[in-house]
Amino acid sequence: MRVNANLFWLLAVFFALAAVGYTVWSILDYSTTDMIEPITAMGVEWVGTIAISLGAIMSLFLAFYITITKRAQGGEIPEDIPTAEIDDGDPEIGHFSPWSWWPMVLAFGLALMFLGLAVGVWIAFIGGPIVLLGIIGWQYEYYRNFFAR
């Protein structure tokens, strides 16, 4: 995590310098190229300046969070130790069903719902029940038939 934190700190500095450079460049460019309307020519191009500045702020948030998390762990995690084995990490990451078809049913229903938002609302009314069917089927697939527990 130390490497990740350092990368985000470096990225935050880069975005901050890029925001300053972009702002200065936009001021200089507007002041020299557009002499037809000199009142509106002097200024900052706000969209790019704000976007790059928000990239710096996001990188600062992530770097701070990763630094605090690393400090709270009290030591190096197995992912940061070059000599660590795969089994050194926490092996329990959940229960997955690779044979399940319900995620595809759910994805199809969600695709229809989003298509309904873009094309026509009536398509979303078809996708809604399919989404509910996919969620219920995925949730209860281990309570019936061959995989019942």
Task: Provide structural commentary.
- The protein is mainly alpha-helical.
- Helix content is 67%, strand content 0%.
- The chain is built from five helices and no strands.
- Helix 1 packs antiparallel against helix 3 and helix 4 (102-118) packs antiparallel against helix 5.
- The mean pLDDT is 86.
Short overview:
This protein is mainly alpha-helical.
Task: Report the end-to-end length measured between terminal Cα atoms.
Answer: 39 Å
Q: Could you tell me the number of beta strands?
A: 0
Order of helices and strands: HHHHH
Low-confidence stretches: none
Strand content: under 5%
The shape, in one word, is flat
List the SSEs and their pairings.
Layout lengths: L1 H32 L4 H4 L4 H28 L28 H17 L2 H19 L10
Helix pairs in contact: 1-3, 4-5
Keywords:
0% strand; 5 helices; mainly alpha; 2 domains; 149 residues
